[in-house]
Amino acid sequence: MKSMNDEDAVDFTKIDGNDEQRLFKHMLKGYSSAVRPVFNASHQVTVFIGLTLTHIFNIDERNQVLALNVWVEQSWTDERITWRPADFGNISKLTMAMRYLWTPDIVLYNNARDFSRGFVDTNLHVSSDGLVQWAPPQKIYSRCHMDVSNFPFDHQFCSLVFRSWMYDLPQLDLRIVQRYDGNSPFTKDSFTENGEWEIVDNRTFRYIHTSGSTEYSTVVFEMHLRRRMLYFMYNIIMPCVMLSILTMMQFALPCESGEKITLGLTVLLAYSVFSFNIAESMPETSEVIPLIAIYLMAIMAISALSVVFSVFVLTLRHGAENKTDMPRWLEFLGFRLLAPLFGGSTQEKRRKHERAKCIIDTNRVLKANGIREETISKGLIERVQAELEFEHMVARWSQLANIFDRFFFTTVFMLTVSSTAFLLMVAPNMENPSLHDRVWDIL
């Protein structure tokens, strides 16, 4: 092994070439990139790592993969490539290709792609004191468990786990870089904002991973992401609210229009299409059901219930066609309980008074035409009275149908408003997670 005294005796100015070329030849003389950059094999190589996030390329909820563009900043000291700047034209830094020097085998441990795709082959900056700096840009794909229970008001926590693939702790110690300007080791100085996600917070920590009896130094960069809601409010929530309004409008349609059921079924079909579109962007998991899916199912159930209500109202509307008297329980429920709140007659004696009035009106019609009651058969009088009674029955059933129509409108309105208010106001504020209160699951 060449000592420092031997190097002092060498006249580097006599080596052919310019200063950088002479320095390059001096550094690589007897150098091997296959071994760690220490003279004593028992010594540990300390590698400092930092991360600069430039862009969130994509977050695939379906496959639960986070794609980022980053600069993986690494630095370490190579004891075998020190020199005196005065011997090489006062050159204190030199840029060299990656293939000439030893580089640590740091990998993204929770990689979601092929591990053979390493860092980009970029140049390294070497200082005269042996400090090597390397910041390759890289597009990385990380596994990230997505909790979509509060979608689209969800928060996600994604981690980037870096460690050496082969060197254990006695050989290589991976540490968090300490920036000279006091910034976080996980910086966003060159970050381009993402249209769907915003970074709420980030943190960096180091821990020792144990695999059997072997220990590995590990550095974790963790992000707290929050989904931007404007896109989903405009494309999902608002159409659902408008369809809910259409669901309630079927109770405003008169029974004679014949379109109450058609409108309800059309709205129900539209909800089914929305549910299918949302399911395409959700991860295929049975662990949780997204909040927006629960909301859609609730609104679809309300829409289906509205169709059932409309069928019931139409049945009441045509109840007199069977020439059957109104059941006492239905009459009590409609005219005694619901009529005071939703309009309609509440007095039973009014019904008897109207029947008596029908008979009086019949006699007046006969007298007005100069016809005596004695000259008219009793059957004809009974038939006229039966027709009047039937008209009264039709009006009675129609009145009951209107009462229930208003009652069902109010019921659907309250259900729709409460479910929508829960989705937009209560659920998003039920949980406000913090990155620093979260316990990280060690790999």
Automatic annotation (TrEMBL):
Keywords: Cell membrane, Disulfide bond, Glycoprotein, Ion channel, Ion transport, Ligand-gated ion channel, Membrane, Postsynaptic cell membrane, Receptor, Signal, Synapse, Transmembrane, Transmembrane helix, Transport
Localization of this protein: Postsynaptic cell membrane
Keyword match Lipoprotein: no
Membrane topology of this protein: Multi-pass membrane protein
TM region(s), chain numbering: 231-249, 261-279, 291-314, 326-345, 407-427
Top-rank taxon: Eukaryota
SUPFAM superfamilies named in the record: Neurotransmitter-gated ion-channel transmembrane pore, Nicotinic receptor ligand binding domain-like
Main location: membrane
Xref: InterPro entries: Neur_chan_lig-bd (IPR006202), Neur_chan_lig-bd_sf (IPR036734), Neur_channel (IPR006201), Neuro-gated_channel_TM_sf (IPR036719), Neuro_actylchol_rec (IPR038050), Neurotrans-gated_channel_TM (IPR006029), Neurotransmitter_ion_chnl_CS (IPR018000), Nicotinic_acetylcholine_rcpt (IPR002394)
UniProt domain Neurotransmitter-gated ion-channel transmembrane: residue ranges: 236-355
MF (Gene Ontology): acetylcholine-gated monoatomic cation-selective channel activity; transmembrane signaling receptor activity
One annotated Gene Ontology cellular component of this protein: postsynaptic membrane
Family: Belongs to the ligand-gated ion channel (TC 1.A.9) family. Acetylcholine receptor (TC 1.A.9.1) subfamily.
Official protein name in the record: Uncharacterized protein
Source organism (scientific name): Caenorhabditis auriculariae
